[in-house]
Amino acid sequence: MTVSVLLADDEPLLRTGLRAILEAQSGIEVVGEAADGAAVLPLVHRLRPDVVAMDVRMPLMDGIEATRAIVRTVPDPPRILIITTFENDDYVYEALRAGADGFLLKRARPAEIVHAVRIVAEGESLLFPASVRALAGGRADARARADFARAALTAREQDVLRLMARGHANAEIARELFVGTETVKTHVGSLLAKLGARDRTQAVIAAYESGFVTPG
């Protein structure tokens, strides 16, 4: 299956470089480009990409607002990969909280860029490194704890969420818990629904902000 990608960055050289790297790979196609966040939403509606690789800081509309707009208005929205210079940037955390699925450093090597696009497209693992975990954990508060408690996750759903927070994919979780992959998928779907989370990233953010899991 070919993964279609929309690139959004106000630096033409970066867009050109990303396009060259991604289109050199089999199974990845760049279907469009945008120089600003305001241009992203119309292109998403028209092109229906699988992944949007988007700079977090752009003029007119930044990646955070563009992410919110996509998640709010697009049925079955694409996966969103935030492009950033600094991995411990609050902008990155806010973009993930708004609905982005992972982030990519601008200094990443070509192989890392390709890997990030594929991981985000598959949707069964996380790009959620220690720096962002620390940011999320630092926002733990009583309201988040109360919201998490109301979700009333079962013991097995809690086990799955802990492993998700470590970045494990479904197959890895299945091996760890000695269950089938389909069973893991069922637990993931259930805990997402209980937490009101769009995807794994949102569930893991909720786990950190509630103090259910902690950085490190």
UniProtKB/TrEMBL annotation:
It comes from the Bacteria. Keywords: DNA-binding, Phosphoprotein, Transcription, Transcription regulation. Signal peptide: none annotated. Residues 146-211 form the HTH luxR-type domain. The keyword S-adenosyl-L-methionine does not apply. The modification 4-aspartylphosphate is found at D55. This is Response regulator.
